[in-house]
């Protein structure tokens, strides 16, 4: 039995009626009951099943839907109690391990262990260490790139340690004597954004966007 009781209550008998104590403003005293019951599958055989039943006036959800009657629980089912508690059911009596009791909605792992003990990406098959040390990961990216009128791609390659100096040279020292190509700094910044998005980690990409926004704001002010 899931439920709660008031802290000032001294009735030990009432407290013992609840097996799992929950503390939230929307939890009823006897919120939800989970029990094991023998269920006949045929005239000659039966099996133990787990049943869940909401208490009177209690808010209980079963896999995201309101639960109004007693229902059988299966491994991987999500049981919500009020607005603050969410449980996933796993059957400890099954012969397979808890890791094998994954629900259908559970995402499959993106990493796998090769027979040689190497951790590989499940999608592309590349070793994780190799992907992290690859100096030109942009060659494996397939996102759209900036192209000219003939369809030729513009690629601007630099190392992460060069990024700060590169931004300073683009924004702080434009071609002051040139009367043409006024959008050259903006074009180079777009290429920097493209390279960062396809080559570096998401955290580095966000830092680049913040640096560009900050430096443009400084120039405009």
Q: Estimate the helix proportion, in percent.
A: 10-25%
Biggest sheet details:
5 strands, mixed
Q: What is the CATH topology classification name of the largest domain?
A: Tumour Suppressor Smad4
Please tell me the total number of domains: 3
Furnish the topology, listing elements before pairings.
Blueprint: E1 2-3, H1 12-16, E2 20-21, E3 30-40, E4 46-54, E5 60-62, E6 65-66, E7 71-73, E8 78-81, E9 85-88, E10 111-113, E11 119-121, H2 128-133, H3 163-171, H4 184-199, H5 202-220
Parallel strand pairs: 1-2
Antiparallel strand pairs: 1-3, 3-4, 4-7, 5-6, 5-8, 8-9, 10-11
Helix pairs in contact: 4-5
GO cellular component, one term: cell-cell junction
GO biological process, one term: angiogenesis
Protein name: FHA domain-containing protein
How would you describe this protein?
InterPro entries: SMAD_FHA_dom_sf (IPR008984), Vascular_dev_regulator (IPR052072). One of its GO terms (molecular function) is GTPase binding. The chain is of the alpha+beta class and 221 residues long. It has three domains: 90 residues, Sandwich (Tumour Suppressor Smad4), CATH 2.60.200.20; 26 residues, no CATH class; 80 residues, no CATH class. 25% of the residues lie in helices and 21% in strands. It contains five helices and eleven strands, in the order E-H-E-E-E-E-E-E-E-E-E-E-H-H-H-H. About 3% of the residues have low confidence.
């Amino acid at each position: 039995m899931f439920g709660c009781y008031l802290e000032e209550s001294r009735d030990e008998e009432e407290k013992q009626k609840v097996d799992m104590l929950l503390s939230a403003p929307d939890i009823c005293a006897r919120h939800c009951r989970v029990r094991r019951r023998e269920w006949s599958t045929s005239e000659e055989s039966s099996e133990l099943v787990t049943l869940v039943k909401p208490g009177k006036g209690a808010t209980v959800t079963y896999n995201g839907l309101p639960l109004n009657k007693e229902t059988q629980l299966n491994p991987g089912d999500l049981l919500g109690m009020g607005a603050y508690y969410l449980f996933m059911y796993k059957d400890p009596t099954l012969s397979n391990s808890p890791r094998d009791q994954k629900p259908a909605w559970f995402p499959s792992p993106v990493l796998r262990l090769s027979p040689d003990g190497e951790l590989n990406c499940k999608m592309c098959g590349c070793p994780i260490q190799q992907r992290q040390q690859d100096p030109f990961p942009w060659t494996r990216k397939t996102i759209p790139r900036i192209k000219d009128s003939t369809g030729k791609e513009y690629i601007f390659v630099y190392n992460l340690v060069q990024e700060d100096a590169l931004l300073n040279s683009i924004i702080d020292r434009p071609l002051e004597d040139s009367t043409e190509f006024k959008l050259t700094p903006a074009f180079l910044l777009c290429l920097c954004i493209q390279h960062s998005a396809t080559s570096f980690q998401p955290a580095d990409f966000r830092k680049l966007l913040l640096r560009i926004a900050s430096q443009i704001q400084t120039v405009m002010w």
